[in-house]
Design goal:
By secondary structure, the protein is of the alpha+beta class. Helices cover 31% and strands 23% of the residues. The protein has 4 domains: 194 residues, Heat Shock Protein 90 (2-Layer Sandwich), CATH 3.30.565.10; 110 residues, 2-Layer Sandwich (Ribosomal Protein S5, domain 2), CATH 3.30.230; 63 residues, no CATH class; 175 residues, MutL, C-terminal domain, regulatory subdomain (Ribosomal Protein S8, Chain: A, domain 1). Helix 2 packs parallel to helix 5, helix 5 packs antiparallel against helix 15 and helix 17 runs antiparallel to helix 18.
Length: 645
């Protein structure tokens, strides 16, 4: 273990202000970085009450010598740097020497540590910056730090903490990201006494991604790598079909340090240009290895924002890594090979396939026929080719009947008697009683008819459709051009707002599970009741997943996952929005996904009924995005453009 030195004042002033301990997640981040810098390959994190009352981090690193234990809790005391030149080439995650001092100033901290050369371990207790105990302890090699009662003496800061579930999800997000940055380390996360994450630490990044985010997310990734000009980019990017509605699942690392980089995100989007739908974003887990002298990590308190000496170098490295991945990992040839393997016949069909034959009827088959019922057979002789050759039916009769079989209308119940012409008297006698109340389908037709009752039919003339996007018609002496997607979106949006989510939802045949980032997951759980009020039946599925069992009738089951991801992303970005605004853009998201898309085929009857419905609703003139749903051109304006007037 390197000796811990208290930095001189002139050197401490060169270091940017350290991150203030704002919440349990920031404490866990700083302590995990110390464990990684100590060379640990097995780290356990345990929290209770979201980390507010209890945090324990255990590692098998190098440990701290007893002579240095006090210095470790002094501000600007670190073993990572010693001179000003060391700031130009930082290889470690921590370097400011402020983490332990900041944590011990606002909580009760207990440390048990032992180096490989020590005969016994050391137990050190410090509360609010005051030393309580320094004594021998029996413990294995490594360090265990326990943080209790965070902000117990600063209630003003305590009240700014969120619910325990929210704080715990924030801690889980930190553990997830650090686990992705170091797949060679085995991480174990225990939350409220339950183990929610464990990584193998075998060094395989794809295995680590699967352990953190699940099989569904990892199965949509392809390997990406690019080496050149002193920069190496390696990791995984998502297939174009596995894209998401936001950038919340993009993870960039610089020398195994989690960062936020607009350059990397821009290069990723540019690499997927013309390969991904508009409004969709790729996911990634990419590590950028670069000379530490070419990047400055000492510019932000959280050390997540960095500056590059050459932004173009990083852009090109990420861009070509994406291009290489798409050209080699997402090709039609690979898809054909998968299909070929799926339908490949077994090598030994006789041994691997067992064909189950239908058992022959038992000898006492006729004894099981209900009483007063005989089997009616239709002989196959002299039957037309286009008619069934044999038919078996059970009728209440005393003897066997032989009757010809004729095609049965889909509107009639099949009978086994010769057809005869129905008289008016038969029709009246056999007709069902008139229902006392109209059926729902009839009500729907009448409602729609009433909606367009004010529509002036004689002044409407449907012309057709242009580019499978714009419906053109003539109405009241004007040429009307309708954007069918924008208009349909606004109509659905108004219906959802009017019903306020009280419409009968559709039950999904197969529930949809949606994998979210921990920030999205936490924000979604906080607003789960709001989502269910909008017509969904969603609930917590654990470990960053939401399961959806019902959705609004207007929404296709294929769009459920995208809508939930989009809503979750908005919850993260628009935390300050009030409830009715959140519900409003949930309806907006559902309407946008449910509306007919530009380029989709629309029959002439659908176009005519849709145009009439829209023109009978004068209050709908803009889509929820603010775009016009239709434009009008008078005959005079048209003739003026052609020079007739």
């Amino acid at each position: 273990m390197p000796k811990i030195n208290v930095l001189p004042k002139h050197l401490a002033e060169l270091i940017a202000a350290g991150e203030v301990v704002e919440r349990p997640a920031s404490v866990v981040k700083e302590l995990l970085e110390n464990s990684i810098d100590a060379g640990a390959d097995n780290i356990t994190v345990e929290i209770k009450n979201g980390g507010i009352s209890y945090i324990r981090i255990t590692d098998n690193g190098s440990g701290i010598e007893r002579a240095d234990i006090r210095n470790a809790f002094v501000s600007h005391a670190t073993s990572k740097i010693a001179t000003a030149d060391d700031l130009n080439g930082i290889f470690t995650l921590g370097f400011r020497g402020e983490a332990l001092a900041s944590v011990s100033a606002v909580a009760r901290v207990e440390v048990m540590t032992k180096t490989a050369d020590d005969e016994s371990g050391t137990r050190y207790v410090i509360e609010s910056g005051d030393e309580i105990l320094l004594d021998d302890a029996g413990c294995p090699k490594g360090t265990t730090i326990i943080v209790r009662d965070l902000f117990y003496k600063t209630p003003a800061r305590m009240k700014f903490l969120k619910k325990d579930v929210t704080e715990a999800n924030a801690v889980a997000g930190v553990v997830d990201r650090i686990a992705l940055s170091h797949p060679e380390i085995s991480f174990r996360f225990i939350r409220e006494g339950k183990q929610t994450l464990i990584t193998s630490g075998n060094g395989d990044l794809l295995t680590c991604i699967r352990e953190v985010f699940g099989k569904e997310f990892s199965s949509g990734l392809i390997p990406a790598e690019n080496i050149g000009q002193g920069v190496k980019v390696s990791g995984f990017v998502s297939k174009p079909v596995a894209s998401r509605p936001n950038r919340n699942m993009q993870f960039f690392f610089i020398n195994n340090r989690l960062i936020k980089t607009g350059t990397g995100s821009a290069a990723l989007s540019e690499g997927y240009k013309n390969s991904i739908m508009v409004g969709k974003f790729p996911s990634c887990v990419l590590n950028i290895e670069i000379d530490p002298s070419l990047v400055d990590v000492n510019v932000h308190p959280a050390k997540t924002e960095v500056r590059f000496s050459d932004e173009k170098l990083i852009f090109n490295a990420v861009y070509y890594a994406c291009k290489n991945a798409l050209s080699s990992g997402d090709t039609p040839k690979q898809i054909k090979e998968i299909v070929k393997d799926y339908y490949k016949a077994p090598e030994k069909p006789a041994e691997q396939l067992k064909i189950t034959q239908k058992p022959a009827p038992s000898a006492d088959f006729w004894q099981h026929i209900p009483k007063n019922t005989d089997a009616v057979f239709v002989k196959t002789a002299q039957t037309p080719k286009d008619e069934p050759k044999i038919k078996i039916d059970f009728v209440s009769t005393e003897k066997e009947k032989i009757v010809p079989v004729k095609p049965v209308s889909v509107f009639k119940s099949p009978i086994c008697e010769p057809e005869k012409e129905e008289t008016t008297e038969d029709i009246l006698l056999n007709s069902p009683a008139k229902p006392s109340q109209p059926e729902p389908a009839v009500e729907a037709v009448k409602t729609e008819a009433n909606a367009v009752s004010a529509f002036e039919e004689e002044e409407f003339n449907l012309i057709g459709e242009a580019f499978k996007t714009y419906i053109m018609c003539e109405y009241k002496g004007k040429l009307v051009i309708i954007d069918k997607h924008a208009a349909h979106e606004r109509i659905i949006y108004e219906k959802l707002k009017k019903d306020n989510g009280e419409r009968t939802p559709q039950i999904l045949l197969l529930p949809v599970t949606v994998t979210l980032s921990k920030e999205e997951y936490s924000a979604t759980l906080e607003n789960l009741e709001l989502i269910n009020n909008a017509g969904f039946d969603a609930e917590d599925f654990g470990n960053g997943c939401i399961i959806v069992r019902e959705c609004p009738m207007e929404l296709s089951s294929d769009d459920v996952a995208d809508v939930i991801c989009e809503i979750a992303g908005r919850f993260v970005d628009k935390k300050q929005d009030v409830m009715f605004e959140k519900l409003d853009w949930i309806f907006h998201s559902v309407a946008c996904r449910s509306a007919i898309k530009a380029g989709n085929f629309t029959s002439r009857l659908e176009m005519e009924r849709f145009a009439k419905q829209l023109l009978s609703m004068p209050d709908i003139r803009y889509c929820p995005h603010g775009r016009p749903v239709l434009i009008e051109m008078t005959q005079r304006e048209l003739e003026k453009n052609f020079g007739r007037i």
